[in-house]
């Protein structure tokens, strides 16, 4: 029996599934999906428990063994291969699950008793597997790194997962056993690793206790230095699987019912959270596991901004020194040597300097910009869902008359998720009344972008164009205020405008803001913020020039006119 096996580096998508559970029909469907995805067997891993609840343990074992897929030892393979008295599932002795397991385990041993080669194959499977993907070291275990029959649930806390991950040297753990798929990113460890992944790839031989007959598998796809994690369902010939259970008179029918209803026959081993979610259909999951290099990009930008601020301050002080040598001199590449200026220039006037109070205020402004950048980096770590914002529209209509005015605004937001589901939200507000309409105004803007949030894997071209057009025609003096609010996951942008019109006056105002960037949505957000920081830094330098110019009008510092 091999304790562990290193599969080396994987150069493409890795298919992960587990728990065939003697369900021949589900295993056949899974292998067909592998062919459709064009993933070779050497990049496919079964996380253990080829035999269990269903009716065809012999056929399922022979098919999986001959498929070429990498197979891990689960508690079922361990028990059958070593001829143990029970399945070793970890069920409490007084639980219904334990009672049911004694029944199907007896069926499995009866079916395989004359196939010593299959039992020997099970006994020789590795307990752990390792592979490299996109620069990360991945570990595959059955229950957890602590125990082959350890149950880890979606409700398990981060502390529970971190305790188990600390027991093994890896960046990510793939497991099975518990039967409910989920994935989660955890904080880095003491070894200096970045965010770590815990992934339960799900099982194919039984439903996920979600009220549907679907089976589940997971796919790891490298996207450059990032990894995209997908948890996907599939359907198969459930009725044939149920018939295979019914064909054996000694085999309990409770698991055949579970294949049809999608509900497990007993919940006595489930935590209360999983019991409360029984029968609630699971949704496919997708998560982007960003590289440590990208994750640390925000701190690098902070360091770069701080360095630029220090360099700017040093340049200003250097120019002050030159100004002291010769108040009329401005340093350029063609300027005379400072010693020449010192020898041939009259004694300079006192050099104006910024006070300590002013320098402190400027420093606070720079600090604010750095904190703003770090805030964007922190919010960009929200990678729990893949969402493509496709269209955001804002429309406002205003109507005025001789005696009263009515203002209404409608905000419509629509987006498309990774599963293809389109969602739209509309909010309408209206104030005032109007009896006679004499004029009307309309304000509209459209922001359209096709970008991927940090949970997607591919880079896209992000183009954002916002146009504001205001046209007012009235017969009386009117003041109109319009506010447009764009709310995203982590921030709200509000644009406000006020227009005052006079009798028989038509005012049309059009403003267009366009920003184009190619890359991930994470980088788009950082680019927009860097534009803001550069603009504020320029304004800071301009303000410092103005204050110094007031004290010495002939001097130009910071290189800003």
TrEMBL record:
Domain of life, source organism: Eukaryota
Bias type Low complexity, positions: 404-455
Protein name: Calcineurin-like phosphoesterase domain-containing protein
One of the Pfam families matching this protein, by short name: Metallophos_2
Entry annotated with the keyword Nucleotide-binding: no
Stretches assigned to the Calcineurin-like phosphoesterase domain: 39-219
Annotated InterPro entries: Calcineurin-like_PHP_lpxH, Metallo-depent_PP-like
Keyword terms of this UniProt record: Membrane, Transmembrane, Transmembrane helix
Upper lineage: Eukaryota, Sar, Alveolata, Dinophyceae, Suessiales
Entry-linked CDD domains: MPP_superfamily
SUPFAM superfamilies listed in its UniProt record: Metallo-dependent phosphatases
Region described as Disordered: spans on this chain: 395-455
Spans traversing the lipid bilayer: 297-318
């Amino acid at each position: 029996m091999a304790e562990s096996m290193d599969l080396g580096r994987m150069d493409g998508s890795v298919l992960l599934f587990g728990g065939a559970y003697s369900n021949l029909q589900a295993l056949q469907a899974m292998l067909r999906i592998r062919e459709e995805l064009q993933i070779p067997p050497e990049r496919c891993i079964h996380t253990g428990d080829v035999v269990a609840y269903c009716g065809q343990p012999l056929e399922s074992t022979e098919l999986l063994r001959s498929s070429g897929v990498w197979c891990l030892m689960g508690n079922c393979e361990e028990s059958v291969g070593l001829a143990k008295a029970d399945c070793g599932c970890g069920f409490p002795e007084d639980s219904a699950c334990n009672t049911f397991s004694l029944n199907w385990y007896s069926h499995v041993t009866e079916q395989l008793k004359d196939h010593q080669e299959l039992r020997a194959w099970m006994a020789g499977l590795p307990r752990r597997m390792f592979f490299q993907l996109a620069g990360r070291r991945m570990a595959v275990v059955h229950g957890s790194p602590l125990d082959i029959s350890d149950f880890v649930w979606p409700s398990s806390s981060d502390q529970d997962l971190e305790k188990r991950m600390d027991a093994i040297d890896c960046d990510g753990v793939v497991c099975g056993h518990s039967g409910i798929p989920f994935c989660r990113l955890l904080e880095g460890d003491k070894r200096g690793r970045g965010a770590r992944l815990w992934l339960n790839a799900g099982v194919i031989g039984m439903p996920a206790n979600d009220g549907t007959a679907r089976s589940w598998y997971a796919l790891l796809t490298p996207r450059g230095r990032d990894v995209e994690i997908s948890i996907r369902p599939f359907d198969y010939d459930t009725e044939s699987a149920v018939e295979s259970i019914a064909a054996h008179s000694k085999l309990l029918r409770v698991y055949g019912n579970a294949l049809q209803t999608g509900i497990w026959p007993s919940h006595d081993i489930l935590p209360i959270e999983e019991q409360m979610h029984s029968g609630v259909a699971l949704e496919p999951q997708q998560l982007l596991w960003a590289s440590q290099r990208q994750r640390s990009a925000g701190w690098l930008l902070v360091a770069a901004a701080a360095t630029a601020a220090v360099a700017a301050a040093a340049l200003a002080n250097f120019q002050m020194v030159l100004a002291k040598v010769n108040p009329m001199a401005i340093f350029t590449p063609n300027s005379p040597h400072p010693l020449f200026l010192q020898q041939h220039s009259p004694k300079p006037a006192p050099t104006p300097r910024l006070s300590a109070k002013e320098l402190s205020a400027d420093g606070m402004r720079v600090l604010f910009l750095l904190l703003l950048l770090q805030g964007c980096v922190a919010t960009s770590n929200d990678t729990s869902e893949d969402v493509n914002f496709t269209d955001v529209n804002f429309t406002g209509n205003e109507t005025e008359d001789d005696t009263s005015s009515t203002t209404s605004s409608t905000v419509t937001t629509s987006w498309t998720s990774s599963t293809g589901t389109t969602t739209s939200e509309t909010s309408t507000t209206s104030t005032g009344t109007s009896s006679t309409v004499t004029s009307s105004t309309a304000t509209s803007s459209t922001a359209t972008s096709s970008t991927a949030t940090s949970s997607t894997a591919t880079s896209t071209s992000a183009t954002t164009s916002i146009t504001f057009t205001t046209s007012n025609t009235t017969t009386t003096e009117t003041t109109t205020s319009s506010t447009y609010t764009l709310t995203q996951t982590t921030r709200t942008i509000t644009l406000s405008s006020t227009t005052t019109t006079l009798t028989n006056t038509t005012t049309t105002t059009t403003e267009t803001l366009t920003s184009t960037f190619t890359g991930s949505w994470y980088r788009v957000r950082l680019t927009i913020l860097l534009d803001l920081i550069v603009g504020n830094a320029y304004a800071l330098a301009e303000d410092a020039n103005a204050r110094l110019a007031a004290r010495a009008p002939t001097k130009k510092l910071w290189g800003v006119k």
